[in-house]
Design a protein that fits this description.
The structure is a single chain. This protein has one domain. It is mainly α and 416 residues long. Helix 2 packs parallel to helix 17. The radius of gyration is 23 Å and the shape is globular. A 3-stranded antiparallel sheet has the order 1-2-3, covered by helices on one side. The chain is built from 17 helices and 3 strands. The longest helix is centred in the C-terminal third of the chain and has 33 residues. Helix content is 68%, strand content 3%.
Length: 416
């Protein structure tokens, strides 16, 4: 394959994010007594090794015949599911989650690789010639492919990685899924939050008033079918509101409940659950417009923010590069996402198109949640910033995820 056929703009954006990420990993763990760039005993040195492995993996992927990914999609998906089961049996527990498999000094996180395995499988399913996505059975099969790995990851107590699988809903809208599903999802989120903030009977009354107003003010044609829809909607909302407390107290872990309470302002715990976010916001705010300069961040150097080279690395950007650097990073991600959507839309095969939208959706969810939790706009659930945070499994999995699509795009005229 001719390398010039790979999308140069996407590769350039990828390299810019990876390199900028390495500079910030170096700054986050900077120690004047260990300032050597090639110190492979520290995180920045280890990340260089992972960057080399990621580059090698990208090269291998670009040399593979693109149809192989489609032909082996279900096999890769099966291997990923097997690894997720193995983690539950022999996995190492880190930060409350049983998510890692150790091989001596080497360890990896299968949940990161489950994302591209699931993306391949669901894309293969959606590319079936006689597929009718409006059929209920088709929707059930499609969502089952997504829910199985998400459930296995949830059993590992890795809620953040499991939540990312919700991003697979977005590509379905391109294939004909009704926008009503997204609207109902937003309604469920709003009801969940309000049920934690106000009395549930008051909330049910508000929903009832809205339903009545819809029937007698906004709805022009009041038929039996419309009355039934409104009644079903009200009954569903009522059951959902009553189930919130049970789910919140019996499904979520105690630290997850505490983080949600802190986010909603019901608990003020600056030295406990809210410590990470408070210190991250202080670090970002102290950076001002231009930042304090590379490796000059006082809060970063003092190691006030836990996980500042992984999940909270955006606070290092904010302190040392300021608003300008933070905005530049966000613009790089926006540019990458827009480019991926553009590439996905020009694909001739359903497999490549759906996979491209899946890649964009996964990256979007990661960026949105990671930066949101650092800024105190989302619960702290511990997911990395793609291509940027320290971590070999994350960088390697995201690189493979991206370059599989670039390989598909390179031969888009030959793939049908």
């Amino acid at each position: 394959m001719e390398k010039k056929r790979l999308d140069f703009i996407t590769i350039l954006l990828y390299l810019a994010i990876v390199l900028f990420g390495w500079f910030n990993i170096y700054a986050a763990v900077f120690d004047e007594s260990h300032a050597a760039i090639l110190d492979f005993g520290r995180q920045h040195g280890k990340q260089l090794i992972w960057m080399g492995l990621a580059a090698f993996s990208a090269l291998v992927v670009t040399l593979v015949e693109p149809k192989i990914f489609s032909n082996t999609a279900y096999i890769i998906y099966g291997v990923v599911l097997l690894l997720l089961v193995v983690v539950l049996l022999i996995g190492q527990t880190t930060n409350g989650g049983q998510s890692w498999i150790n091989f001596g000094a080497f360890k990896f996180q299968p949940s990161e690789f489950a994302k591209f395995g699931t993306a391949l499988a669901i894309s293969k399913f959606m590319s079936a010639i006689d597929l009718d996505f409006k059929n209920l059975r088709t929707k059930i099969y499609a969502f089952t492919i997504i829910l199985i790995p998400a459930a296995l990851i949830l059993l590992q107590h890795d809620t953040g990685s499991a939540l990312v699988f919700a991003s697979f809903v977005f590509p379905f809208f391109r294939e004909g899924l009704s926008g009503m599903v997204l609207l109902l999802g937003l309604v469920a989120i709003v009801l969940f939050v309000l049920a934690l903030l106000i009395n549930k009977y008051l909330l049910i009354g508000i929903v009832l008033v809205i339903c009545i107003a819809y029937l007698f003010i906004w709805l022009n044609r009041r038929t039996i079918q419309e009355y039934l829809r409104v009644i079903i909607f009200f009954a569903s909302c009522t059951l959902f509101i009553f189930s919130v407390n049970f789910v919140f107290n019996n499904v979520l872990e105690s630290h997850q409940r505490d983080r949600i309470y802190v986010l909603l302002g019901k608990v003020d715990d600056p030295k406990g659950t809210g410590y990470n976010v408070d210190q991250a916001k202080i670090a970002i705010g102290s950076g001002g417009f231009m930042g304090k300069g590379w490796t000059k961040g006082t809060i970063t150097k003092a190691d006030f923010v836990p996980e500042q080279e992984t999940d909270f690395i955006f606070c290092t950007v904010g302190e040392e590069w300021g608003f300008v650097g933070s905005a530049a990073l966000i613009c790089l991600y926006i540019g990458l996402l827009v480019r991926l959507v553009f590439l996905a839309e020009r694909q001739r095969s359903t497999f490549a198109r759906f996979y491209g939208y899946s890649v964009a959706s996964i990256l979007f969810m990661h960026v949105l949640i990671n930066i949101g939790m650092v800024l105190g706009l989302a619960p702290v659930i511990g997911i990395p910033l793609p291509f940027f945070s320290y971590g070999g499994s994350s960088l390697l999995a995201f690189t493979i995820l991206l370059f599989i699509f670039l390989r598909q795009d390179a031969d888009r005229n030959a793939l049908l």
